[in-house]
C-alpha cells in the first residue's frame, strides 16, 4: 500500500496551519486513496483535491478529543468516538512530521477548550491527588499570611503603647535637648509602623490572586502529571532494554555447562526490541520462543568470548567457534562488488555500459476496457498493447536473477556446506529485489528467441536463455562461471487474472552446482502477485515457501515469504528461514526482507520450548550476532522514469555486436518501445505475433500431413537446449547441449530461424 505522496506538507509542524497529501483508507475495493489534508484550529479536514477546499469538505475530525496512534513506520490512525481515519504517509519521516503537527494541534485545542471552560465558570473535575497537592501549598500560604497579620497587629499594638509613652515624656519638664531627642524618637517609631502595612496588604492581594487561578493550576498540574507518567513509562522500558543488553554483554549460556545468561532479543534475526523479561525463578535466565511453521524467529545474541568450547571451525564443520564468526574472514567480509579481475589478481578494464535509457512516455490508457474480457484467461494468451510492458523480454528478466552473482562467488569459498547454503539462500531471495517497483509486464518471447549475457572477462560468467516452448510458455536458462559454479533452469510461467489481482506462478526447478565440492542445490520460486489491477496503485508482493535442498549433503533451508497483510504488525516483505543439516539439526537462522537485505545468525544452542495454543511445538534458538550476507544496490538516478530499472537491467537491452539474430536485443517492437515510439511498437508487435501464428499453423499442417502418411513428426526442437530426464529430480528438463558460444566465435548462425 501507499506510494508517492506528491510533495512535502505546505507548512512546518508547529504552525497554525499544516497541509499536505496523505493516503486515506476508503474501502476494500479502492484501498488507499490520495487525499489533500488541512490541519487548522485543532481540526483535521480532507479533500479530494486542493481545488475542493473552496467549496467541498469530505470530512473533519476534532483533535481535542481524538486519539492518535501509529501502527507502523508509515501509518497513522486517528479515532474520535465512532469515527476513525486510517492514514498512510509516503515515508517514515513524512509520517513523523504529521504526527508532530497533530500532537501540537491537539495540545493547543485542549488548551483552547480549557480556557473557554474558565471563562464560562465551568470547572473540570481533577483527581483527588491533584487537589491535595495544589491545596496543600495554598493552605500553608494562607496560614503564613494569618501569622503575618497577627504579627502586624501585635506590632501595631505595642507601637501605639510606645507612642503614648513618648507623648507622656514630652509633657514632662525636661531640658531642651532632651525634648528634641524625644520628638526624633517618636518620628522614628511612627514611620516603620506605617510602612509595615504595605507588605501585609501585598500578601493579601497575592493570596487572592493565587486562589482565583487555582483551577488553571489544577489543570496544568494534571497535564504535567500525565506527561511525567508517560516519560516514566518510557524511561522504565528503556531501562529494561538497557539492562537486558548489559546482561547480554556479560555473557550467555555455555553449551558445556548448560547455564544461561540473560540476553537481548530480536525478531527475525535483528537485535531491535527486547520484549522478553527475566523469569522470577532465575533473574539471569530468559527464554525465547519461535514457531516452527511460521519462522518469526527470536534470536539470542551471545558474547563470543564466553563460548570458546563450542565446536570446531566455522568453515570446517557445521558448528563453529563463535570467535570465528566475528573474524573478518574472506567469505563473510568480502566486498559485495567483487569482480573476476580481483579474484584473479588481474587489473583488466571493464567495458563501459550505458547508465540510462529514454524516459518512459506518459501515455494514458483505459485498463478496464481491455481487461474486462480477460478474467479467468491465461495471461500469455491475451493480446496486450506495449503500454503495459517494459522494454525487456522475459528472457532478460530471467537473466536479472544474476544481479547478485557475487553471492555464489563467495559461496564457492565456503568449506562448510551449511555455511554455503546461507549464501545460496541469500541468492535465491535476492532475485526478487528488482521486482518491488517493477509492475510492468515483460515482453513474451517468441519461440526460438534467445538472449545472451557474456560477462566472462568482466565478471567471470556467461549466460544463455532460449524460449523453448510457446504454449505453455517456457524458457531454458544456463549460466557457466569461471569461479566455480554452474546454474541452469527451465521456467514455465503460469498466470491468472482474477479481477483485482494477477497471480504469477513460476513452475520448474532451479539447479546450482559447485564444481569443486560437487554440492548440487535445487529450489523453486514462490508466487508473485500484482495487486490493484483495476483500481488503485499497482504493487507487487511475494508469498509462499522455498525449500532449498543440497542433494549431496542433504542439507536443507526452509524460507518463508510472509504475504503482506494490512492488519499485521510484521515488517513488510519479510523473509525468515532456518538452515539445517541432514540430521535435521539447525545451524543458521536466515532473516530479512526480499527487497532490502538478508542476514544469517549462527545457532549456538537450540531447545524445545512450550507448546502453543494450536498444539505445535515451539523452538528456542540462541545465536551469535547476525551477519549481513546480501544488501540491495540502490537504484540509479531517475529510475522512476526508466521503468525502475537497476544498473544491470539498463544494460540488458543495450545493442551489442556478434549476437545471434534471434537475440532479444534485435527485437524491433521492444526497441521501438524503449525509444518511446509506442504506437509504432504496437504495430510491430502485432506483425511479429501474426508471423509467429503463421509459423505455428504451418507446423500444425505438417503434423497432420505426417500423420496421414504414417510418419513421425518431431515438431519444434530447441536450438541450443535438449530435453533430458534430470537425474536429481526425475523431471524432464531442457539442459544446454552446447554449440552456442562456438557458433558465436565462428559467427555461424545458419541454424537460427527468422523470427523477427
UniProtKB/TrEMBL annotation:
Instruction: List keywords of the entry alphabetically.
Output: Coiled coil, Lipid transport, Lipid-binding, Membrane, Phosphoprotein, Transport
Q: Polar residues compositional bias: what residue ranges?
A: 332-343
Protein's cellular compartments? Membrane
Output the Pfam families linked to this UniProt entry: Oxysterol_BP, PH
- In this chain, the stretch annotated as Disordered covers 112-136, 251-285, 302-357
Which Gene Ontology biological process is one annotated for this entry?
Answer: lipid transport
Record carries keyword Phosphoprotein:
yes
Q: Which residues form a coiled coil?
A: 221-248
Q: Which residues form the PH domain?
A: 15-107
Does Oxidoreductase count among this protein's keywords? no
Q: Where is the composition biased (Low complexity)?
A: 251-270
Q: Which InterPro entries match?
A: OSBP_sf, Oxysterol-bd, Oxysterol-bd_CS, PH-like_dom_sf, PH_domain
Gene Ontology terms for molecular function? cholesterol binding
Supply the Gene3D superfamilies for this chain: 2.40.160.120, Pleckstrin-homology domain (PH domain)/Phosphotyrosine-binding domain (PTB) (2.30.29.30)
This protein's GO CC annotations: cytosol; perinuclear endoplasmic reticulum; plasma membrane
Q: How does it sit in the membrane?
A: Peripheral membrane protein
Q: Determine the domain of life of the protein's source.
A: Eukaryota
Instruction: Give the similarity note.
Output: Belongs to the OSBP family.
Listed name of the protein: Oxysterol-binding protein
Q: Which organism is it from?
A: Nesospiza acunhae
Designated gene of the protein: Osbp2
Amino acid at each position: 500500500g501507499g506510494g508517492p505522496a506528491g510533495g512535502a506538507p505546505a507548512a512546518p509542524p508547529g504552525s497554525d496551519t499544516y497541509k499536505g497529501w496523505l493516503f486515506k483508507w476508503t474501502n476494500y475495493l479502492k484501498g488507499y486513496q490520495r487525499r489533500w489534508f488541512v490541519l487548522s484550529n485543532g481540526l483535521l479536514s480532507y479533500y479530494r483535491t486542493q481545488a475542493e477546499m473552496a467549496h467541498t469538505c469530505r470530512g473533519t475530525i476534532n483533535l481535542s478529543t481524538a486519539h492518535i496512534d501509529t501502527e507502523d513506520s508509515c501509518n497513522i490512525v486517528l479515532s474520535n468516538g465512532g469515527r476513525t481515519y486510517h492514514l498512510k504517509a509516503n515515508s517514515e519521516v513524512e509520517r513523523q512530521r504529521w504526527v508532530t503537527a497533530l500532537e501540537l494541534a491537539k495540545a493547543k485545542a485542549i488548551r483552547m477548550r480549557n480556557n473557554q471552560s474558565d471563562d464560562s465558570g465551568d470547572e473540570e473535575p481533577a483527581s483527588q491527588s491533584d487537589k491535595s497537592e495544589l491545596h496543600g501549598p495554598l493552605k500553608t500560604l494562607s496560614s503564613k499570611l494569618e501569622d503575618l497579620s497577627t504579627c502586624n497587629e501585635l506590632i501595631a499594638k505595642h507601637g501605639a503603647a510606645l507612642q503614648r509613652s513618648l507623648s507622656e515624656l514630652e509633657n514632662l519638664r525636661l531640658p531642651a535637648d532632651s525634648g528634641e531627642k524625644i520628638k526624633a524618637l517618636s518620628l522614628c517609631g511612627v514611620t516603620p509602623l506605617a510602612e509595615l502595612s504595605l507588605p501585609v496588604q501585598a500578601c493579601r492581594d497575592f493570596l487572592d490572586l493565587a486562589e482565583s487561578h487555582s483551577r488553571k493550576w489544577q489543570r496544568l498540574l494534571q497535564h504535567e502529571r500525565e506527561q511525567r507518567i508517560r516519560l516514566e513509562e518510557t524511561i522504565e522500558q528503556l531501562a529494561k532494554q538497557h539492562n537486558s543488553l548489559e546482561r547480554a554483554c556479560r555473557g550467555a549460556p555455555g553449551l558445556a555447562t548448560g547455564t544461561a545468561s540473560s540476553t537481548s532479543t530480536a525478531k527475525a534475526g535483528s537485535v531491535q526490541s527486547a520484549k522478553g523479561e527475566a523469569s522470577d525463578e532465575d533473574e539471569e535466565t530468559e527464554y525465547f520462543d519461535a514457531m516452527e511453521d511460521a519462522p518469526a524467529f527470536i534470536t539470542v545474541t551471545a558474547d563470543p568470548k564466553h563460548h570458546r568450547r563450542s565446536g570446531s571451525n566455522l568453515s570446517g564443520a557445521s558448528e563453529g567457534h563463535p570467535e570465528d564468526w566475528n573474524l573478518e574472514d574472506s567469505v563473510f567480509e568480502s566486498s559485495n562488488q567483487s569482480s573476476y579481475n580481483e579474484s584473479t589478481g588481474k587489473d583488466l578494464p571493464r567495458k563501459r555500459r550505458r547508465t540510462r535509457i529514454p524516459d518512459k512516455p506518459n501515455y494514458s490508457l483505459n485498463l478496464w476496457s481491455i481487461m474486462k474480457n480477460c478474467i479467468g484467461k491465461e495471461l500469455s494468451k491475451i493480446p496486450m498493447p506495449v503500454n503495459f510492458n517494459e522494454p525487456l523480454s522475459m528472457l532478460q528478466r530471467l537473466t536479472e536473477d544474476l544481479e547478485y552473482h557475487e553471492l555464489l562467488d563467495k559461496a564457492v569459498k565456503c568449506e562448510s556446506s551449511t555455511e554455503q547454503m546461507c549464501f545460496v539462500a541469500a541468492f535465491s531471495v535476492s532475485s526478487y529485489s528488482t521486482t518491488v517497483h517493477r509492475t510492468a509486464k515483460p515482453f513474451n518471447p517468441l519461440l526460438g528467441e534467445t538472449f545472451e549475457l557474456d560477462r566472462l572477462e568482466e565478471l567471470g560468467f556467461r549466460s544463455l536463455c532460449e524460449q523453448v516452448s510457446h504454449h505453455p510458455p517456457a524458457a531454458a536458462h544456463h549460466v557457466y562461471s569461471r569461479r566455480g559454479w554452474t546454474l541452469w533452469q527451465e521456467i514455465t510461467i503460469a498466470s491468472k487474472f482474477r479481477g483485482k489481482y494477477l497471480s504469477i506462478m513460476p513452475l520448474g526447478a532451479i539447479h546450482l552446482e559447485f564444481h569443486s565440492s560437487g554440492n548440487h542445490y535445487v529450489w523453486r520460486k514462490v508466487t508473485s502477485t500484482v495487486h490493484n489491477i483495476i483500481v488503485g496503485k499497482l504493487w507487487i508482493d511475494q508469498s509462499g515457501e522455498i525449500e532449498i535442498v543440497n542433494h549431496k549433503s542433504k542439507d536443507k533451508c526452509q524460507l518463508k515469504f510472509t504475504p503482506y497483510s494490512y492488519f499485521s504488525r510484521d515488517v513488510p516483505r519479510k523473509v525468515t528461514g532456518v538452515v539445517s543439516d541432514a540430521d535435521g539439526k539447525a545451524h543458521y537462522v536466515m532473516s530479512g526482507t526480499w527487497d532490502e537485505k538478508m542476514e544469517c545468525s549462527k545457532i549456538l544452542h537450540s531447545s524445545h520450548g512450550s507448546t502453543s495454543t494450536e498444539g505445535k511445538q515451539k523452538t528456542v534458538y540462541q545465536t551469535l550476532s547476525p551477519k549481513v550476507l546480501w544488501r540491495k544496490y540502490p537504484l540509479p538516478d531517475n529510475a522512476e522514469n526508466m521503468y525502475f530499472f537497476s544498473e544491470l537491467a539498463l544494460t540488458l537491452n543495450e545493442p551489442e555486436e556478434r549476437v545471434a539474430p534471434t537475440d532479444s536485443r534485435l527485437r524491433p517492437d521492444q526497441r521501438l518501445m524503449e525509444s518511446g515510439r509506442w504506437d509504432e511498437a504496437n504495430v510491430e508487435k502485432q506483425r511479429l505475433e501474426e508471423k509467429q501464428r503463421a509459423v505455428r499453423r504451418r507446423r500444425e499442417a505438417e503434423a497432420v500431413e505426417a500423420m496421414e502418411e504414417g510418419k513421425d513428426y518431431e515438431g519444434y526442437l530447441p536450438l541450443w537446449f535438449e530435453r533430458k530426464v534430470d537425474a536429481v529430480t526425475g523431471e524432464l528438463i531442457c539442459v544446454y547441449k552446447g554449440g552456442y558460444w562456438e557458433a558465436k566465435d565462428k559467427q555461424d548462425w545458419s541454424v537460427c530461424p527468422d523470427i523477427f
